[in-house]
């Protein structure tokens, strides 16, 4: 498999994806709309299967490679990249845990190969906040003889209108509730999207609310349900996949901002100065400071991602959060 770097090689098969992302990013950011065409290009390039295990035909990328791809695409269109990244993280987590019923996971993988496999974990709720801080979700799966009936509201659901699968974090309605993930195909009766995302940043990430009202879920689509106590600690490797992949997108944004600034300083020649702003020592010092921060961030990101891939047992709980910070 080709190792992806942040340097663009015109022979690189993903160059077309980068170009497509860059072409639509500004328009969709201004309008707050999803870059459907960019995501279709990414799907045709096989990027929905980036972290699907090789044993199932996927590219089987580790965290270091995934972060590299996220950084590069993030420089072109961070919102579209964030939608893709949620899918990459989910497949990585499934491969780590190996808890999903094989038949169900194969269905999701088939969709990914067909270009209709965008998947995200819907965890955040209005009252609960993120489950990574602990707590029991209000979303509830009520058992019936043949299926689950799922009800609740999830906020900040990145990619809401383009997702093909929702992996919903919910509780059971038993006296001693269990907690975990219930897989729901988008468009299932009893599911709807409420437009609620109108933020200044990541406007095109489509992070709207998804509402479930007695949505029917097959029994074996309760893909990872455990006692509530089992969710109190997030394994460092899980945290690393989320924090580092998202951090790579942030770093891609910094790359693009740096490139824009350098271009501006080189092209801008004030009349009273008579030469480009780039010739001013203060501007050169500022660019140097930016480079130092960017290089430090990139080094921390790369080294922590390599550790996660090669010696995950040595990964401390604090490292992923430090990189993201």
Total strands: the figure is 8
Gross morphology is globular
Quickly count the domains: 3
Fourth CATH level, the homologous superfamily of the largest domain: Butyryl-CoA Dehydrogenase, subunit A, domain 2
Distance between the termini: 31 Å
In the CATH hierarchy, what is the architecture of the largest domain at level 2? Beta Barrel
Sheet-strand content, in percent, reads 15-25%
Please write the string of helix (H) and strand (E) elements. Answer: HHHHHEEEEEEEEHHH
What structural class do helix, strand and pairing data support? Answer: alpha+beta
**Proportion of helical residues:** 40-55%
Reported for the largest beta sheet, the result is: 8 strands, mixed
Mean pLDDT: 92
CATH class of the largest domain equals Mainly Beta
Overview of this structure, please?
By secondary structure, this protein is α+β, with helices and mostly antiparallel strands. The protein has three domains: 15-113, Acyl-CoA dehydrogenase/oxidase, N-terminal domain (Butyryl-Coa Dehydrogenase, subunit A, domain 1, Orthogonal Bundle), CATH 1.10.540.10; 119-231, Beta Barrel (Butyryl-CoA Dehydrogenase, subunit A, domain 2); 236-324, Butyryl-CoA Dehydrogenase, subunit A, domain 3. 43% of the residues lie in helices and 17% in strands. The protein is built from eight helices and eight strands, in the order αααααββββββββααα. Strands 1, 2, 3, 4, 5, 6, 7 and 8 form an eight-stranded mixed β-sheet that branches. The radius of gyration is 21 Å and the shape is globular. Mean pLDDT is 92; it is low at 1-11.
């Amino acid at each position: 498999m080709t190792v992806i770097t942040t340097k663009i090689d015109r022979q690189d098969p993903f160059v077309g994806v980068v170009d497509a992302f860059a072409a639509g990013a500004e328009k969709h950011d201004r309008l707050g709309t999803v870059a459907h065409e960019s995501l279709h290009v990414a799907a045709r390039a096989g990027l929905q299967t980036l972290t699907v295990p090789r044993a199932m035909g996927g590219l089987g990328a580790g965290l270091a490679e995934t972060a590299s791809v996220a950084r590069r695409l993030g420089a072109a269109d961070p919102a579209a990249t964030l939608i893709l990244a949620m899918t990459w993280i989910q497949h990585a987590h499934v491969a780590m845990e190996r808890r999903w019923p094989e038949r169900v996971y194969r269905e999701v993988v088939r969709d990914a190969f067909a270009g209709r496999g965008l998947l995200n974990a819907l965890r955040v709720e209005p009252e609960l906040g993120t489950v990574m801080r602990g707590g029991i979700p209000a979303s509830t799966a009520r058992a019936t003889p043949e299926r689950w009936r799922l009800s609740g509201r999830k906020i900040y659901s990145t990619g809401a209108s383009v997702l093909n699968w929702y992996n919903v974090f919910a509780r059971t309605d038993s006296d001693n509730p269990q907690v975990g993930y219930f897989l729901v195909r988008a468009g299932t009766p009893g599911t709807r999207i409420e437009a609620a995302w109108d933020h200044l940043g990541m406007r095109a990430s489509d992070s709207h609310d998804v509402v479930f009202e007695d949505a029917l879920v097959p029994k074996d689509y309760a893909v990872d349900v455990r006692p509530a106590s089992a969710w109190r600690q997030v394994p460092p490797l899980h945290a690393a996949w989320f924090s580092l992949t998202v951090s790579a997108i942030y770093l891609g944004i910094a790359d693009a901002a740096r490139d824009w600034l350098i271009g501006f300083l080189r092209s801008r020649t004030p009349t009273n100065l008579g030469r480009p702003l780039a010739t001013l020592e203060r501007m050169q010092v500022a660019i140097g400071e930016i480079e130092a921060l960017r290089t430090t961030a990139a080094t921390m990101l790369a080294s922590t991602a390599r550790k996660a891939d090669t010696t995950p047992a040595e990964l401390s709980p604090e490292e992923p959060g430090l990189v993201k910070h």
